[in-house]
Amino acid sequence: MSTDTPPEIDESARERLIDLAAEFYDQFAAGEIPAMEIPTRTKSNIEYDESSDVWVYGDRQSTRSANSVRGARKLLKAIYTIEFLADQLDADRSSTLRELYYLSESWDEEEAQFNDQDESNQLIEDLEIVSKVTREDFHMRPEESGATLMGPLHLREQTRRGERDIHCQEDVGEGGYQIPNNPDTIEFLDHDAEFVLCVETGGMRDRLVENGFDDDYGTIVVHLKGQPARATRRITKRLHDELDLPVVVFTDGDPWSYRIYGSVAYGSIKSAHLSDYLATPEAQFIGIQPEDIVEYDLPTDPLSDSDINALESELTDPRFQTDYWREQIELQLDIEKKAEQQSLAARGLDFVTDTYLPERLDAMGVL
Predict the structure, then answer these.
(1) 296 is catalytic
(2) 31: alpha, beta or left? (left if phi > 0; alpha if psi -120 to 50)
(3) Residue 254 is assigned to a ligand binding site
(4) How far does Cα 316 stand from its chain's mean position?
(5) 336 is in an annotated binding site
(6) b/e string for 298-308 if b means 16 or more Cβ within 10 A?
(7) Contact 198, 125 (CB under 8 A)
(8) Would you say residue 21 has pLDDT above 80?
């Protein structure tokens, strides 16, 4: 299946992979132990990049070296994966991350086969970092995320049958426009949008669409579908950067949902090498805020021990080091409560679209 990626990008990605494999052979030829260095992917190795306003990896490095049996196996798996990816690009084919895991079982060297999908996923991330090529340009796809958008946006997408123009209200059903794996193949043609509203849950997304919030306020509603996929974060960044649209993120009021906002705005720890590509640092958090729980007396659940631990961890997370987040997190630890987006329905089905969001957007200067 063709991926509709320009041939020059495919060739560049293939060359970078081949160059990486060649480095291992050069190390062998020089009598050196082959090794590959990558940034340490931990919270303690995340630092703020003032030039791009996103969080990126720091200077700490981890080494994948053949000086141990375990390290040698990792490099062997990397070589086999590089060969597979290079062949895939040469044939203009694509595969999923899940398929890569199963494909390895057919490799002739048993030691090169992956033990589980987490291992193959991590290796693809390693190759992204050291080659500076995204997995999308490797023609590697995740399983379908199902994330969608709905709003006054006219775009052109590439399909196997050629280009197709789509209006993301008039030409789609109630489910909206499904975001493709590689949003860089989309061309934005026109829009009447005022801002982008990223929504965590499907229930809230459906409420906004049913109430016509996208029409009434010129809103592009992006359904994050929980922790957002890379494609969802990429199209959100493009909507902000290329169409100059403000981005606000609307989630549940709990520590795990705050991390959903953090991944949209600042990037995630595991993909910090792609923060410039995926993160939208100007994105603002609209709610549910802990202060909303108090102000609107929302129905709540008690914080669990894991919730409390997560909130305390966020107090030291570099992505949440602002006065706003410290105040909100400390308030939540004090009241020991959390609330879902749909808890706003306790004040009526239209409260979220008629009152809560307009008032919050106005206070934030978005409307």
Answers:
(1) no
(2) left
(3) no
(4) 22
(5) no
(6) bebeebeeebe
(7) no
(8) no
241 within 8 A of 283, measured Cβ to Cβ: no
Per-residue model confidence as pLDDT tens digits over 151-189: 999 999 887 777 889 999 999 888 889 888 888 889 999
CATH number assigned to the domain covering 7-141: 1.10.10.10
Identity at 107, one-letter amino acid code: W
What pTM was estimated for this model as a whole?
0.76
Report the distance separating Cα 261 and Cα 259, nearest Å: 5
CATH topology of domain 148-363: Dna Topoisomerase Vi A Subunit; Chain: A, domain 2 (3.40.1360)
Query: How high does pLDDT run on average in the chain?
Result: 84
Same fold, 7-141 and 148-363: no
Helix-then-strand count for the chain, H and E: 14, 17
**pLDDT tens by residue, 27-70:** 777 777 777 777 777 777 777 676 666 777 777 877 777 777 88
Asked if 152 contacts 146 with a C-beta cutoff of 8 angstroms, the reply is no
Is the pLDDT at 1 greater than 50? The verdict is no
Q: How many CB atoms lie within 10 A of CB 196?
A: 25
Radius of gyration of the chain (CA): 22
Give the containing element (helix H, strand E) for 96. strand 95-96
Rounded Cα distance between 192 and 200, Å, is 23
Q: What are the backbone dihedrals phi and psi of residue 142, each rounded to the nearest 5 degrees, phi first? A: -75, 175
Identify whether the C-beta of residue 307 lies closer than 8 Å to the C-beta of residue 338: yes
3-state secondary structure of 322: coil
Catalytic position from the list 25, 80, 102, 324:
102
Instruction: Provide the pLDDT confidence category of residue 278 given band limits of 50, 70 and 90.
Output: confident
Domain layout of the chain by residue ranges:
7-141, 148-363
Q: What is the pLDDT of residues 320-347, one digit of tens each?
A: 888 999 999 999 999 999 999 988 888 8
Pairing label, strands 301-302, 337-338: antiparallel
